[in-house]
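Subject: Predicted fold for Probable RNA 2'-phosphotransferase, 191 residues

User T.R. writes:
Posting the sequence so we have a shared reference for the thread.
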Amino acid sequence: MDKLSGAEVKLSKKIACVLRHKPESAGLKIDKHGWVSVSELIKALSTDMETLEKIVAFNDKKRFIFSEDKLRIRACQGHSIKVDVELKEAVPPKYLYHGTLLKNRKSIEKEGLRPMNRLYVHLSTDIDTAWQVAKRRKSTEGYVIYRIDTDAMIKSGCKFYQAENGVWLTKIVPPSCMEEISCESTDMEMK
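User M.O. replies:
I've generated the structure tokens; pasting them so everyone works from the same file.
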């Protein structure tokens, strides 16, 4: 029981969409901290508690968390809707990493990393995870990994938070605090 079936992965993605972006699409009300009622979610998505518990426990990205009494559930991070998931400021490792599509390179070099349609920029603790994150989206051009100098960011006043699933979050990464360290391109012309 430690692996999700294809149907459970599909349901997990639907839950992520509902809890992060569109609770109203399932007729759910989300509170200011991102919580929804487990019983209402189960009813809205025609599932059961056993399946929901399995998805929370074995989702490879650890996207969700139950309240202590298991009466509520929320996404750990990744929201595009305004919620306060009660993040606490934390001190990150010296370097964090961000993987993205190569087509974003020019705007990133100019503006830095921005949360786009989310509340925070998501950062990984290792290069392999950054590659996995980048490659979740299809690209005909390729992918790029940036190393983030967190000490420089902290000195410039930036704050970091760590979500309950271990993902590091910040509001923005200035271009001066990051460097491209790896690129995988389908194009021979790199810069």
